[in-house]
């Protein structure tokens, strides 16, 4: 079973070896299931997230390289932002490249004495000197240079960091294929702490299936579902940015640091407006027929040559539009695109960056921080130029204030004040949904404190349409079942956009077609999902997470949702019930 081969790379010793662990993949499927078990084994208790003992683990799944939308690589590590579980998923070509290189997982240990990038060609690992790339600000430039340096053929991916990763900003991202990312929870900072500028993975292996006839038949069935699904059509045509208008109308779009739940002129940064006036092209991840990646064309005149224009392709999705748009009061598309491009170049997570800047703007308004802290940057809602300057200082960290912002909104507010309006959950910055109790329970209880953990926002939106009002026990039960099942999807390494296609029945058929345990049942899969979720919370508890002490941001209780106001008692009841289900 080639999927069971794990590549171990030691940066300290500049050595590598391969171990075969079929039992691990048979028990936990692949992807997030395998990765969390490896993290429990590899990461010592109380490890420094920016120390050599914190491993980086990449894992792919049994459907990778074989079925449509099985396009994700799971990265798991200890997060420098939260001090706890770090998990991020990226698309692009990463998963297929790792699988075609002959691995189901890659574990990176230690720290390099000097800047390095890894070039993994099948069974060979080269430790390349990256001294000339260290200090190169743009993650885009790093990718271009490595593409030129590495000439060997193969199906390949390049994962790299920008200045934010080098400076160990706690929410630095790892950029993949220019427009995809391991975005959340600070993997880029872990790269930086290891002096690891980039990883190239290139593979040439073919992936065999046990029954080609059954495989082709099922592949065609899934492909047809993907290209004919109305939901997939939405992802292709406009993408997740189509959420701006309905959430704004619902009064569930967090704006101005959630002082408001809708924003005038939000239609200017809507997916519909961007598609009509700015869309340059769509691109797709490997083995995906949907092409949900939308790139806007930003044209800017050169300063000294007014009739010559620089054209930049900028990716856009709902979450960056919320975080760098409505949260900051930016509704000018050009201003938003310029800010987004700066965040991309520096290699930052857009969501955390936006929430951090929104808190800083309100703190500046209230006089909690002054021009002394901001170094005379006058933070102002809607002013993209000001925010671009602030982003650069978050990365360069010229004083204590910007160093605090580089550690996340929880840390900054704990140091300067303003915790009541610091929008973080488990120290991870808030996603773009103020839809009701289920969304916020997702942020509080989810293993990653992400909207993608259990999708509570969709529960709220359904209740807003139907007029239903669920009890905290109903919500918690729904979220627990959804997050447990998503552990299977992320162990198969399926894109969550395809969750409506990869039903338990289709998931089971897919696994059996590629030669996984023929006796496995749907009930077995669900039990594995619960076990994986419990493994994540085992790691979190081991590293100090306590659901009884998790902070509920006061702002979410002050601002009404489409389902009415939240109360602390209601939120705490839902949290208590969810964690009892984990026992």
List keywords for this structure.
alpha+beta; 25 helices; six-stranded mixed β-sheet; 17 strands; about 575 residues; Aldehyde Ferredoxin Oxidoreductase Protein, subunit A, domain 3
Describe this structure in words.
The structure is a single chain. The chain has 583 residues and is α+β, with helices and mostly antiparallel strands. Among the domains are: 229-425, Aldehyde Ferredoxin Oxidoreductase Protein, subunit A, domain 2; 428-582, Aldehyde Ferredoxin Oxidoreductase Protein, subunit A, domain 3 (Orthogonal Bundle), CATH 1.10.599. The chain has 25 helices and 17 strands. Strand 10 and strand 11 (180-182) form a beta hairpin. The longest helix is centred in the C-terminal third of the chain and has 21 residues, at 472-492. The protein is globular and about 65 Å long. It starts with a strand and ends with a helix.
Anisotropy-based shape: globular
Mean pLDDT: 96
Structural class determined from secondary elements? alpha+beta
Helix content estimate: 40-55%
Are there runs of 5+ residues with pLDDT below 50, and where? none
The description of the largest β-sheet is: 6 strands, mixed
CATH homology superfamily name of the domain at 229-425: Aldehyde Ferredoxin Oxidoreductase Protein, subunit A, domain 2
Give the DSSP E fraction (strand runs of 2 or more residues).
15-25%
Strand order in the largest sheet: 2-1-6-3-4-5
Look at the structure and give the CATH class of the domain at 229-425: Mainly Alpha
Write the CATH architecture name of the domain at 229-425: Orthogonal Bundle
Q: Radius of gyration, rounded?
A: 22 Å
Number of helices: 25
CATH topology (level 3) name of the domain at 229-425 = Aldehyde Ferredoxin Oxidoreductase Protein, subunit A, domain 2
